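Exercise 7.
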Amino acid sequence: MAGHSKWANIKHRKGAQDIRRGKIFTKLIKEIITAARIGGGDIDSNPRLRSAVMAAKNENMPKDNWERAIKKGTGDLEGINYEESTYEGYGPGGAAIFVDVLTDNKNRAVSEIRHAMTKHGGNMGENGCVAYMFDKKGYLVVEKSAAEEDALMEVALEAGAEDVREDGSNFEVISAPEDFEAVKEAIDAASIPTIAAEVTMLPQTMATLDGDTALKMIKLIDALEDCDDVQKVYTNADIPDDLEID
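Solution. The predicted structure, written as tokens, is:
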């Protein structure tokens, strides 16, 4: 669930076999519970919950699972209250790292994050040390083979997207967070498939990494994503498209 364009592309190339579905379900359920607790259990009137359920559906989570998570969030079923927090720091090559956390134990969360950072060549920073390098945006990725650029641009911009740009073999559609759902619905209605669709933190500038440094960054992000309390990891690391990943 790392969140930025280059990283999303790398993870997509690595393939679904590298993703443990159980962990993804756990993270999604935490988000659904939290969204329902904060904004109520009505999907139509709670944008955060609607996005979380959409993500769960995209991962083929059974309906019973996400409906039960909503009831835990609203208090209709017994559940855990998760606290939101963020942690920031730097990875190999000085690339920025921004981590979203949902946890019932902040001490455990920060300990696991610090351990992952230290083990894989990163270091924790103070709050605010890298957050200013990112903008919160709606983000969708469409493979070039799936759509004509002019057609995609017309649909996306008409629905409120800010930009459609090329990134290697893909098109990226960028929007304000509040316009994300409208843009996605328009692209879906045009029968244009997406390989990524989320509200994320996009870096303003990229830190180019190569060779061993890039591989170390990938291992660090994997380690952070493996932490149970980590929801998403954002980085401005620019990973080469031709990097060989074991």
